[in-house]
């Protein structure tokens, strides 16, 4: 029976220390504080600053997430500039016991529909043991996927669903009508959490959830409140990491260049974190 409760997968950020090395302790701490019923994670995706990670670091994060949460909770992002590298990332993820992977479309260089389809199909054929989720993010990749191409992307038996981010969500309803009953369509738009099931989706891959999981769960049926939370924290890695700095006292640095937070926004985020800190004892009683 299909649940009416949307699934939530946290698109977890990657913590860096003051020397810009991966902060393993901060990463494990972030994973451990996720609610048991909503502890699935997408590792080394856009929110995880994957372009700033080398292959060994992406492997390290995937293994650490599998160790902390169990491999069944982990979706490893294996998108890369070349399919050659994606294959290697997938092999390492599978060796860690992970069985779900997200594959970003080609990016940086232009790709036509045939290349986008061949990219996904050849990857899926090479890894029949993995559940593959094509990942569409035209705002970042420059690759726009239409309905016919999306239908073709979903054809392989081990394509288990897809994630739509940015402008790809404009076609969410049309794409939802094209998925098989055994496939799950996710949005990367956190603000759609209260309505995603009514739109034919399975759930949300959320950049905000790992930052304020209890708050998101408390208001998941309230569109206005969710929009307010998402408007403050995302989609912005810098804002999310500022909140995690305030909440944990850890550096939570970024490697990639991002706009500075305006003073007013930083103050709002700090106030939100303080509000959650005051509520925490009552929530745990």
TrEMBL record:
Top-level taxon in the UniProt lineage: Bacteria
First-tier enzyme category under EC: lyase
EC number: 4.3.3.7
GO molecular function per UniProt: 4-hydroxy-tetrahydrodipicolinate synthase activity
Alphabetically ordered keywords of this record: Lyase
PANTHER family in the cross-refs: 4-HYDROXY-2-OXOGLUTARATE ALDOLASE, MITOCHONDRIAL, DIHYDRODIPICOLINATE SYNTHASE
Name of the featured protein: 4-hydroxy-tetrahydrodipicolinate synthase
Species assigned in the record: Microlunatus parietis
């Amino acid at each position: 029976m299909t649940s009416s409760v949307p699934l939530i997968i946290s698109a977890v950020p990657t913590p860096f220390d003051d020397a810009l090395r991966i902060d393993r302790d901060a990463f494990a701490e972030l994973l451990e504080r996720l609610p048991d019923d909503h502890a699935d994670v997408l590792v080394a995706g856009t929110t995880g600053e994957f372009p700033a990670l080398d292959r060994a670091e992406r492997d390290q994060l995937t293994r650490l997430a599998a160790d902390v949460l169990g491999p069944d909770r982990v979706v490893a992002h294996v998108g890369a500039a070349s399919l050659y590298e994606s294959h290697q990332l997938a092999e390492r993820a599978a060796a860690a016991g992970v069985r779900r992977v997200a594959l970003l479309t080609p990016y940086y260089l232009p790709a036509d529909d045939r290349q986008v389809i061949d990219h996904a199909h050849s990857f899926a054929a090479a890894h029949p043991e993995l559940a593959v989720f094509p990942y569409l993010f035209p705002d970042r990749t420059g690759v726009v996927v239409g309905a016919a191409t999306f239908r073709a992307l979903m054809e392989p038996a081990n394509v288990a669903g897809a994630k739509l981010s940015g402008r790809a969500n404009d076609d969410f309803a049309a794409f939802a009508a094209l998925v098989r009953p055994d496939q799950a369509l996710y949005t990367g738009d956190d603000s759609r959490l209260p309505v995603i099931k009514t739109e034919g989706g399975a759930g949300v891959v959320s950049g905000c959830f790992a930052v304020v999981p209890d708050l998101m769960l408390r208001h998941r049926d309230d569109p206005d409140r969710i929009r307010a939370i998402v408007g403050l924290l995302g989609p912005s890695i810098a804002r999310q990491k500022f909140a995690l700095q305030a909440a944990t006292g850890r550096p939570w640095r970024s490697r990639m260049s991002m706009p500075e937070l305006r003073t007013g926004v930083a103050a709002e985020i700090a106030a939100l974190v303080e509000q959650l800190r005051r509520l925490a004892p009552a929530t745990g009683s």
